[in-house]
Amino acid sequence: MPQMLAQVLFGRWLVVLLTLGIFGVPLGAERATIYRDTWGVPHIYGDSEVAVAYAHGYAQAEDRLTSILRSYRLAEGSMAEAFGEKWVEHDFTQRLVRHAQLCREHYSELSPEVRAFIEAFLAGFKQYLREHPSEVPEWAPDPQPYHLLALGRYIIWNWPWGEAWGDLRRAPKGPDTGKGSNQWAVTPSHAADGCTITLIDPHVPWTPEWLFYEVHLHGGDLNVYGFCIPGTPYVGLGHNDYLSWACTTGGPDTADVYREEFNPDNPLQYRYDGQWREATRETLEIRVKTEDGFETRTREVIRTHHGPVMKREGNVGYAFKTAYDHEFGLIEQLARMNKARNLGEFINALGMRQFMAQNIMVGDVYGNIYYVRNGRVPIRPEGYDWSRPVPGDTSATEWRGIHPFCDLVQLLNPAAGFMQNCNISPGTMTRQSPLTPDRYRDYLYRASATGTNPRGQRALGLLDRRGKLTREEALGIAVDTFVKVSEPWKQALQRAYTKYRREFPQLEKAVRILQEWNGYATVDSVGMSLFRALFLVRREFGDRLPRRAIEAGEELTGEAERTLLQALAKAVQWMQEKYGSLEVPWGKIHRGRRGERSWPLAGVDSGGLVTLRAIDTPDEPDENGIYWAKGGQSCPTVIFFTQPIRAYSAVPYGQSERPDSPHYTDQGEQLYARSRLKPTWYAKEELMQHLESQKTLRIPERLTRRRIPAKGRTRVRLRP
């Protein structure tokens, strides 16, 4: 009897212990905790990946509810239904390229694990909506799992679609010389801390859909920190325990335009291999909100087997074809990238070729640094200029498939011990780069051997050093504001003023201000403000002011030197009229703002001037003479692969889009205004010392039944 009683009591205690989760979390009782640090950044720790996804969706809704709902409409092409006539053209384009339609039709083809993650994310997002119905705008769509895929496709579509329009306009191909992004990686042998150091630094518009969401996801096989597009579940740029990855614009050609010949007697027939083929006709309908209710706009689209006809000139049409026309697996690829445990697994993830054409740079905990000029690239027949429209009436121009990943331009562990790509050619990204164009098809390399820009030149100069890169120096490079072209302009001005001082006595103070300026676009610099004014007015002088000759350090003719001084005089006059002074701090007229608050910003990216810390503004100031930031450096992050990993980051505004939140402008005012980055507190013990709040969510049982199998955490070394 005592033995039976003991068995019963033990059984009851066992049930209690299991219920409390001491021996494991029972089905339906999984939890995730959202720990927010003092900057409001969520660090999500969950019992499983599904739990993490649920809390991630909830956290994004807390911070970016309105923007995310708007982004789902952007991708679906239903903005006009909510916001009126001005969105009609946008909606037609999104319907034309079928983001929502394609992702809805193919959603079931994603892996069960990724679908479980997506649906848990969306369930957490919707849970917040149910708890806070007053915050949901009346125009809100009903978010569906395919919306998340469509949003990812919508974001990357800017690249292949832009390439196609470039072909149609016969735009020249080549590296960007102004706007773009930065990335670099340094091996442990070149770092004072003896670890790999990497930079993630995208430059994008500061519009709601592009304001990256900072997050730390930890559960199951996930332990990843970085930035994602709001409304999507995985990190797009960031690092995990093993590696980091960064992207900059530039890459192979992934789109083409076909010149179609249509039958004069039948506008739906086009010539192909000597015969007439039938095109398809599709009517797109857009529901538009008006003052009187809703109206429907229609547009006819003609498609050949190459793609939609985007321009028609009589019997000639131009059809767009991209290598991403039928792709929907970006989120699947991001899942693999987020969970990659070594460089080999990461490269296998890239091999899915769902990411747009980009320079992708990776650094890992083992000391490897790796680069690929990434993209989903068609195999094209030779003998055609693929940067322009090609004949569509022959099978001779048809693609021969998609290039395997191994064909792409790649580099592992360069001899120099570092590399960088600030939207430049692979040939100039490191000292004595082995990546020369003769080794690749032209549309894979798609750059000149020497193509670079001021950001690339500056980054190369700062990284190509004899001494080892310190932590302070690495952080400084991320927010560097040196104006590369300032020195040759100052020298040319000094030479010209020395010769023609008597003709331009009124320029003495202006010349002195510029000569005393150190070339940095800091917030307290008065030289930067005057130099920007010079670049504003120089356009009035056209070819008489030879910019290329000045920046190449060439001797100018007497006429050109006088023109240079005339331009400076014009800049002085403009400064006096606009500000009443020549000594105006750059931060007073170069500013960021959100709502009613504004703050000074160092750096520049407008009017032909750019720094590594690129801040995009209109080329001309407003009526008060202020250049208001609208984009540029968006989430600079420097990662040190020490043990534990330490990283530093910042965003231009704050974590939250809510005006009443303390994190609406805190990073803008306290970090961006001071050219500073904050620690990310990737290690949990460090996070707990900088904790603002925590919230634990119980995960619905219907979600936790769909467990994502864990692979475990093994380390595979690549570098010998």
Mind sketching the topology for me?
Elements lengths: L1 H19 L10 E7 L4 E5 L2 H28 L2 H5 L4 H10 L1 H8 L5 H20 L13 H12 L1 H11 L13 E5 L10 E5 L1 E3 L7 E7 L2 E7 L8 E4 L2 E7 L5 E9 L2 E7 L2 E4 L1 E11 L2 E11 L5 E5 L2 E7 L7 H10 L3 H8 L7 E7 L4 E6 L15 E2 L18 E3 L5 E3 L21 H4 L8 H10 L7 H8 L7 H15 L7 H9 L9 H12 L9 H5 L6 H22 L6 H4 E5 L2 E4 L4 E2 L2 E2 L4 E2 L10 E2 L2 E3 L3 E4 L5 E4 L16 H5 L7 E2 L4 H4 L3 E8 L2 H4 L16
Parallel strand pairs: 2-6, 10-19, 22-27
Antiparallel strand pairs: 1-2, 1-32, 3-4, 3-21, 4-29, 5-28, 6-7, 7-8, 8-9, 9-17, 10-11, 10-16, 11-12, 13-14, 15-16, 17-18, 18-20, 22-23, 24-25, 26-28, 29-30, 30-31
Helix pairs in contact: 2-6, 2-7, 5-7, 9-10, 14-15, 14-18, 15-16, 16-18
How would you characterize this protein structure?
This protein has 720 residues and is of the alpha+beta class. It has 2 domains: 40-479 and 650-720, Aminohydrolase, N-terminal nucleophile (Ntn) domain (Glutamine Phosphoribosylpyrophosphate, subunit 1, domain 1), CATH 3.60.20; 486-632, Penicillin amidase (Acylase) alpha subunit, N-terminal domain (Orthogonal Bundle). Helices cover 32% and strands 23% of the residues. The protein is built from 22 helices and 32 strands. It has a 10-stranded mixed sheet with strand order 20-18-17-9-8-7-6-2-1-32, with helices on one face. A 6-stranded antiparallel sheet has the order 21-3-4-29-30-31, with helices on one face. Strands 10, 11, 12, 15, 16 and 19 form a 6-stranded mixed sheet that branches. A hairpin with a 5-residue loop joins strand 29 (637-640) and strand 30. The N and C termini lie far apart (66 Å). The model is unreliable at 4-25, 171-179 and 713-720 (pLDDT under 50).
